[in-house]
Amino acid sequence: MNFKKSVAMAVCGAMVLSMGTATVVMAEGETKMAWYAPAPHPYFDEVKKGVEKFAEDTGIEVDIQIGPDWTQASENEKVEALIAQGVNAISIYPSDASGANGLYEEIHEKMGVNIVNFGTDTEKPTTASFAVATDVKQAAMDATEALIQMMGEKGKILNVLEVLEDPNTTLRKEGVEEVVAKYPDVEIIQEIAGIKTQEEAVSKIESALTANLGNINGIICTGMISSVGMTQTLDDFYAKQGDAEHIYAIGIDTDDGVMKGIENGIIDATIAQNSMGHGYISCMALKYLGEGYTVKDDQYFIDSKTVLVTKDNMDTYQDDLDAVTGGILDELTTTYLTK
User: Which residues have a Cβ under 8 Å from the Cβ of 165 and sit 6 or more positions away?
Assistant: First the structure.
């Protein structure tokens, strides 16, 4: 990764941190850090790589834990067990945007544990110091803009969402609709939602294509599961329709199936989240908090940014994301934190 100037190096039993001209020495053992994800998921696999890279670069051990399910009760139990083992800094994906705050208040106010959300946010007010995540509405807007340009700024779009009860899905829906509204020759012909599995995505997208055969010019998916389902449907179903015109299609995340779909020309692009950055940046923020840095006023959300991936940059997009991560790390003690 291209951000080693912003990480710690183990020297003579202490951690020496170089950030610009500032150097901070931290005795080992002051921070006992953990990273917690609620349940197995491909996204968490990517985030974990960033956590592992942070541990490798800094020499700071991070207790990596993945829970059994998406319930807040399980998360409470597992996190409380970590705290009982001496963990005083945790990077965490909240299972419930509201319910997690009760856990956070208990471990922060009573036990002094520093907390950084990754990947998503908790409802305000919250005792988490930061949320390191994608600006999901902006990512949806960027994807929609890219799709409309591919379509030549005219045509009909199939908007594929996932679970509307998820606040992130609502923001993505708003983002897509705001961009479409700017183009008089573009319209959303149909919206699909309520997708929790790849099978549901395939079934619903196939039904929409059948109902609107020849009348859809673009498809946008703003969830990973729907993106995989879209790729499969365009390959297994739509491509087999006689004289089917190309439907421009854009998804999110870099699942192997999605990337293969771009490589083979089945879909045109995807939005790559900075998942490794979610892990690396959240742990680095905890490191600084443990060294005595405090959060600056009005600084909470750390936008980890995204990159549009097409066939042209499939082999280099991660370098772009690493450069973004490096820039954010350079700004942690100037923009977000103070000592």
Answer: none
Question: Could you tell me if residue 122 is inside a domain?
Answer: yes
- CA nearest 312: which of 255, 274, 265? 265
Do you find a cis peptide bond into 38, omega within 30 degrees of 0? Answer: no
Entry pTM: 0.82
Q: 152 with 42, same domain?
A: no
Residue 24's φ and ψ, nearest 5 degrees, are -125, 135
Q: In terms of domains, do 9 and 41 share one?
A: yes
**Number of domains into which the chain is organized:** 2
Domain that holds residue 202: 136-273
- 218: CATH: 3.40.50.2300
Listed in sequence order, the residues at least 6 apart from 225 whose beta carbon sits closer than 8 Å to its beta carbon are 162, 195, 196, 197, 198, 201
pLDDT in tens, the chain (339 residues): 555 444 433 222 333 333 232 223 334 447 999 999 999 988 899 999 999 999 999 999 999 999 999 899 999 999 999 999 999 999 999 999 999 999 999 999 989 999 999 999 999 999 999 999 999 999 999 999 999 999 999 999 999 999 887 878 999 999 999 999 999 999 999 999 999 899 999 999 999 999 998 999 999 999 999 999 999 999 998 877 777 789 999 999 999 999 999 999 999 999 999 999 999 999 999 999 999 999 999 999 999 999 999 999 999 999 999 999 999 999 999 999 998
Assess whether 278 and 268 both reside in one domain. no
In a domain, 227, yes or no: yes
